[in-house]
Amino acid sequence: MDNKIMNFQNYFTNQPTTPNPVGNMNFNKCLYTPQEKPSDLYEAYQGFIRGNMSPGLYNQYKISKPLDVEPLNEREQLLIYVDALTFAAHDLNLYLDNFPNDKAMIELYNQYRIEADRAITQYENNFGPLTVNSEATNRYPWSWNESPWPWEM
Hints:
- The chain is built from four helices and no strands.
- The chain is mainly alpha-helical.
- The model is unreliable at 4-27 (pLDDT under 50).
């Protein structure tokens, strides 16, 4: 057993130190630029289904068109809206980690964050808590374990 562990450790310690030993495999790279403008970004839902807010970073790989999420009812529609807004805010947060002085993006981030908070409050008022630390679970009686859960129905 110890011999197998040693061989496993040797595999990682004896690998070539070149940056990409296999050659150019066309890995995605961070192509964010501080010159991006909020008007150049996708809207929240479009960024959500593509996996990023920046059209310059979207790599469709083998999917010619991103899959549209089709809500079946008002609850699912509001949950998708919450997901899209929180995704947009999170993606802009990642951008701002690299470019913290981009005032326009900070303003856009705050707009998405405020709208996401509103949508979460609306969802929780209508359908129950989304997370264990939401306002809806701080009531008596304890409501976190009440069904249906967000992913049910």
